[in-house]
Amino acid sequence: MKNRKRFIVFLTTVLFSGCAVYAGLNYDQLYGESIPRDRIAPSYSKVAEHYLTEVKPIIENRCVVCHACYDAPCQLKMSSAEGIDRGAHKEKVYEGTRLLASNLTRMFIDAQSTEQWRELGFNPVLNERDQSAEANTQAGVMARMLQLKQAHPLPNQKVLDHDEWDFSLDRDQQCPTIEEMAKYEQDYPEWGMPYGLPQLADNENNTLMSWLEAGAPMASVPPAPQSTLEKVKDWEAFLNGDSLKQQLTSRYIFEHLFVAHLYFDDEEQPVFFNLVRSRTAPGKPVDLIATRRPFDAPNVDRVYYRFVQVRETIVDKTHMPYALSDAKMARLEELFLTPNYTVTELPSYDPVSSANPMVSFTQLPVEARYKFMLDNAQNTIMGFIKGPVCRGQLALNVINDRFWVFFVDPDMANLPSVNAFYERQAHNLRMPAEKESNTLPITSWLRYAKQQGDFLRAKNDFMEATFKNGEHLTPQVIWDGAGINPNASLTVFRHFDSATVTKGLVGEQPKTAWVLDYSLLERIHYLLVAGFDVYGNFGHQLVTRMYMDFLRMEGESNFLSLLPEEVRHQELADWYQGASTDLKHFIQGDINEFEQPSGIKYLTDTPKKELLDKLKAHLAQVQPTRYDLSTAALSNQGIAALTTIGRLQGEHVSLFPELSYIMVEPNDTNTAPQLFTLVRNSAHKNISSLFDEESNRLFSRDNVTLVRGILGSYPGAFWYVKEAELPALTEKVLAVKSEESYRALLDEFGVRRTSPEFWPFSDRLNQTYQSNYPIESGLLDYNRIENR
Predict the structure, then answer these.
(1) DSSP string for residues in 751-765
(2) pLDDT-derived band at 581, boundaries 50, 70, 90
(3) pLDDT tens readout for residues 380-397
(4) Whole-Å CA distances, 191 to 147, 209, 282, 637, 714
(5) φ, ψ for residue 718 (rounded to 5)?
(6) For residue 476, what pLDDT band results from cuts at 50, 70 and 90?
(7) Tens digit of pLDDT for each residue in 24-35?
(8) Does one domain contain both 491 and 617?
(9) In a domain, 598, yes or no
(10) Which of 32, 118, 213, 774 has a CA that sits 20 to 30 A from residue 132's CA?
(11) Is residue 379 part of a domain?
(12) Could you state a single Gene Ontology molecular function term (predicted)?
């Protein structure tokens, strides 16, 4: 009987090769009706152990590296058992032209079972018909994709044919269902999985195929230890106190930490949690309140804040660890609960007020809010880097490729006049999320532009009085982290459509810098994290991007106020070369009417450099050394060679990828591999253009930053070199002047996506990263690896 079924499939394939009849293959007749199956085995069963120890590591290191987050091809998220069972969808999450917001498809939020995902249009990649070995391998997309790859490995080419292989993020995605697989196999025989990467090793493929033949039994993550659950219990009790002060405080904390991965910092192997809103109180199973935004109406009388264990593989591009401890709880009590103030009523959840933290949280002290965000400023800024988006060209082309971030001393916010000023300006600080996810861009932008202009004029008047005759306009106005907090300064790197934020002032002095005060930091969070909807329509995403223009320029203006009056507009003109007349009028008028002198006495004719030097000295005690080349376990000669590479600049820099990861094998065989990242920094005349970034490029000012360790989540190229070969590598890098010379560099030191050594190199890279930074690291993403 089994052979007869195989013969029917084979004969049908042959007879109807090239015909649309493929789409009508009657799998129901061959293998029965498709029905979601229960594949989750008990946590401590032998089946679960086999999946977790033998199968899952292969899926993570070969599949999850491309199939995680919203930008996973075909929405196939393989980072959890539930995600694999959910399957794939033909619609893209990233669709920048849609006129109406799309349906939400967030894993573990918008549906709770495979049946519900089927109702939302997801197609299985595992066989859901008869659970026989034959059906499981012939009627499952995943099995067929693996078999296709084994039958048709990558062609024997260093660089794959660009006419046949498309690695662009916006490429057309096939996303075949099982009924469409035969035609897919005929049309794209070399497009098995992993797509555009080497096939799996025989032992890995055999393990996966045996697992699939057995019906793909899986296991969810093991439950947290009892000792961890006791800490969860304590935190849930703290966050769900009955007083109005506690309820408002907890709402504020939730709306800032909902994208973070919470963990307890006293555990060797931490378990990560998400903070969620629930209809049920602690002690009962979580009944998740699923809304588009964390501040949308929960439609319940009482919200409870609960911990839910993260069930997905930790991937670097979305991982934002946030440490909890007894000291952290005491700090929250000190900031929000101990001070003598009264919360008279809880704020509304209507969109206009809930989208504006200056309205919804006006009863909480500004100082408490600001210090809460500053305590973990990297995490706060990281929210818009890693949070609701995994890809964000439209949002990210609003920032320069590398800049430093400083913060106004929070003690400046502990003034009654500051609180009163923000309260008076609440109407001018309204946010685009008040329009929810369907927005008309032009009319909205004009209104927000007027509000921002009104706010900046009022702010300039306020600053004129506060900083009269340059009083306080010195490095002392900048938060120094109390001499112990390395969050006091940050470096942001933009990698075209992704970005990275790190602690400290990394690299040489940048073109621009931001100085953020409370209102700016808060609005950035509510614009790009709490209020941003990746499923929103074109207007919502466009207005969000344009509003961020205002916030960036405000942060830049704060920095410029520390410079001598006579150079402020001169510096600004260099930052906005070729900007439109309207933009020039805006930034030279409303945003920069502040005329008080700087309180700094400048001694050179390069005041910006002098200022950045002074700020770096001011923050010297809290500058981390994590990315310093000098800390690498290499010889002085090796470090000198890398330092030379890190000085690259000029138009030829554009030949390098956004991120190149370099593994150096030390001369000392007892020393672990040393990892480095070469970051390309693309220069621009200005960054005010929405759609034609290329026309604003200043290739002659391009440069690089070379750091020790892994920076970013999306490698574009891999290099492997022995320490003794570093001078030769440097010579090759300096010789790159064309595409041909870049390929010559890769020929000698590159590990291309076509290399037979790709997967062993990948495993070693991820293992080394995990070993070096067990809390912060996650699997890297390979969707941007170049084909060169």
Answers:
(1) --TT-TTHHHHHHHH
(2) low
(3) 998 887 765 565 545 556
(4) 11, 18, 48, 44, 22
(5) -115, 135
(6) very high
(7) 358 888 999 999
(8) yes
(9) yes
(10) 118
(11) no
(12) isomerase activity
